[in-house]
Amino acid sequence: MVTTAAPGASRPRRPLHHLATGLLVAMLAVYALATFYAESYAWLGFVRAFAEAAVVGALADWFAVVAMFRHPLGLPIPHTAIIPRNKDRIGESLGRFVEENFLEPEILHAKLADVDFARHVAGWLEQEGRAAALAAYVTDLLPQMLDAVEDEDVSRFISEQLLARVREIDAAPLAGELIGLLTQNRRHQEIMDALLRSAARLLNEYDGMIRQKITENTAWLFRKFALDSVVAKTILSAAEQQLKEVSENPEHPWRRRFDDAVLDFVEKLKTSPEYRARADQLKNELLDHPAARSYVAGLWGEIKEAIRRDAGRSDTKLTERIAAVFVVFS
Fold first, then answer.
1. pLDDT means per 10 residues in the chain (330 residues)?
2. Residues 291 and 185 placed together within one structural domain of the fold
3. Model's pTM, two decimal places?
4. Helices marked H in the chain
């Protein structure tokens, strides 16, 4: 919008305005002097013509430029102040010109089809420091981005998607594969070793209780001759000896039976329809449990807080991971 100075207000002039005005005055002075001395010096006619042309050209340029934006000298001369009087029509014409020559779908499609955005973005990211700088900028924006989303909607989306994906998993064969991996190289025998150690520790810790139970279940005649303690000692000793033998012998029959039982269980998980049905039923019962649903619903809150904490740290690893993603895509 063009503004005009209030009457009596001084209009600020720039150094170029002073220079232009000074040159105009100088040309007027040259024209006057050349006219005064023209009869004495014939060659001053050329000087006068030059000065006259300069003065006329300056006045014409001044009038033309001023007439575009306001009335020269404040006089309502026709065909002046062109832009203020026609600004709406000019704006409409410019808008129509831009729309018809730059924003037509066909024109935009033709221009955009020639632009390889992926290559330009990749080239920009490949420049040293660009990926890290962009990752730092994204990290700084993450808290605001997290605040902008609706927590309830995101939490519901994560819950629905996660539970739906888990329900699609065939639990029994997957469990069979996982257990099969754990049994490679007889690693499952470590479980047997842990069970044997636990059993030996329990025999030692509950020695008195076990002896008491044996005494209570021994015939009165044995108790009469104090044979119940001998029976208890024999049973406990035999149990300890058996546990020791199994622990020290990797090829003990008990271990082999444990191998067979584990392998049979893995095979049934992979192939048995009954095991598959039971595993799916257990999986669905677990997913439908209120505690499981509550945990899944709270995942977004935990993820959000973890991202917020990491983004606020000076040595955040999040920026490095985002930068690595940018580098991969570039």
1. 44 68 86 84 85 88 81 75 79 82 75 76 77 82 82 85 87 86 81 87 83 69 61 82 88 88 88 89 88 85 83 73 73
2. yes
3. 0.45
4. 15-36, 44-69, 82-102, 105-113, 117-126, 130-148, 151-168, 171-182, 189-205, 207-216, 220-224, 227-248, 253-271, 273-288, 290-297, 299-311, 318-329
